[in-house]
Amino acid sequence: MTVTVRDLRPDARADLEGFARVRHLALPFMLFTPDSVAYDLTHMHPDAHYRPLVAVEDGEVIGTAQVHLVHDSPEPGQGNVNVYVHPERTRRGAGGLLVRAAEEHLAARGATKLFAWVLDEPDNRAFAERHGYRASRSAHFLRLDLAHGTLPPLQDPPPGVELRKGSDYADDPRPLFELDAETTADEPSDVDFQFTDYEAWLAETWRHPLFSPELTSVAVVDGRPAAFTLARTDGATRYGTAMTGTARACRGRGLAKLAKNDSLHRARAAGFTEAFTGNDTGNGPMIAINKWFGYEICATEVRYVRELG
Predict the structure, then answer these.
(1) Is the pTM value of this prediction over 0.85?
(2) Which of 54, 77, 288, 309 has the fewest C-beta atoms lying within 10 Å of its C-beta?
(3) How would you classify the pairing of strands 274-280 and 238-246?
(4) Average pLDDT for residues 26-51, to the nearest whole number?
(5) Among 288, 250, 271, 260, which residue's Cα sits nearest to residue 154?
């Protein structure tokens, strides 16, 4: 059968379901649903020039690519190319076709440096290196069994600290945006980010269909959010934390651990059975916190970089 690559069609349910299915099979540690795939396509910032691609064989989606410029970085010319192929449909040329189409799209829009996450497995790494990418930093995926695992007991907040839900900020989420921007800026990464566009954050984070304001937990000090865990769910059994962080002035007080424990307990009570998160391998403090909760590393991915020129 011939493999072809084309744009994802947001009005074709089969495309959306196929994209989400391939991502789930190839990357079961992250949350994707057909609705979240459609939302990303229609709500990502226009400066990202987001272009999701699918590889199709005999009418079946067998490969996917998320392709966009890193528009919220102070360094111009950076792009992301994340390609995943159905584990039972590899070695058909889908990956190579997706990479070529992605690189052409980004190069035409001024990208000079491309980043790609690759699962830390020999075939995947060899594929990236054959296409001119070199290994950079790495990160872990972690999983926690909420159905059968034992969470640390809930603790009362220390004096002067209050726990709130993300939904308590429904009328004005800007304080959470400011905290997210500060903590994201300090995340270990080979790409610098600057969250300065509040409206884009509302569209891409706060209103995202996977985001759960009810399960997001916020530790508040002196009336201001000081630490938080931003929760996402697939609406069924899977829960994930997209970000956990503490304001610089409040670090070292255990507030992130307090907020995350609160969120995990409420997620389990709501019927979620699996919890997922991710950590840069150099982020020792957060890895230690997640191990304290009982998370176990279930996979590792490597960031690959290619300079265009």
Answers:
(1) yes
(2) 309
(3) parallel
(4) 96
(5) 260
- Where helices occur in 151-230 by DSSP H, the ranges are 174-185, 198-201
- Cα Rg, the chain, nearest whole Å: 20
Matching residue, tokens 């396509």:
41
Q: Which CATH superfamily is domain 144-298 in?
A: Gcn5-related N-acetyltransferase (GNAT) (3.40.630.30)
CA atoms of 290 and 144, how far apart (whole Å): 9
pLDDT at 206 over 80: yes
Nearby residues of 119 by Cβ (< 8 Å), 6 or more positions away: 26, 27, 299, 300, 301, 302
Can you read off the two tokens belonging to residue 254? Answer: 């255990």
pLDDT value at 191 more than 80 = no
CATH 3.40.630.30 fits 3-111, yes or no: yes
- The answer to whether residues 48 and 80 touch, using CB atoms and an 8 Å cutoff, is no
Indicate whether 229 pLDDT > 80.
yes
